[in-house]
Amino acid sequence: MDSNKKYVITIARQYGSGGKTIGEMLAKDLGIHVYGRELLKLASDESGINEALFAKADEKVKDSRLFRIAQNVYSGELIPPENDDFTSNDNLFNYQAKIIKQLAEEESCVIVGRCADYILKDYDHVLSVFIHAPKDFCMEQSSRKLSMPSKELEKFIAKTDKYRADYYKYHTGRDWTDARNYDLCLDSSKLGFERCVAEIKAYMNVRFQ
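The chain above was modelled as a monomer; its predicted structure follows.
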């Protein structure tokens, strides 16, 4: 792999599968930045829209029935400040997407979540990864961070994954867990986090040689 060329790894992940941790480990190993929720601040700085609105939109979308049945597939357009919809959920997503594209053009990095695989689908130097794992594994991993009864934890994981699937469907028109959306799908319960990192790097060497 040519170290002078830029590359981006996008990581979509089921809750509890360790996808975020794998992304952080990969970025550290490669000596590049990893972006997740940091994108909200960058999008806020770019648009001039208060960062709290980006975070609030995330929460509002989780409970929106309309969001679950509607779609507004991302097309790259930005709504201008003079428009009433400038601070709409859709335009907040558009600004996040703008930042994701800027990062992909400016540096090598890892991007976790945020439909980055779809936003960057036309970029040749992007590798998209989906990290998944069986329910028991996700439960075990999640229980190390969240202190709640088993049934509540199970519901929380299911709700979080449902939100991620709905969010993805709304903005991309695609099914979040469809393997055809990604270059590489890895079961973290079978490989462990370190071997997931190794597999991604091995794939990068083949893909970007």
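The mean pLDDT is 87.
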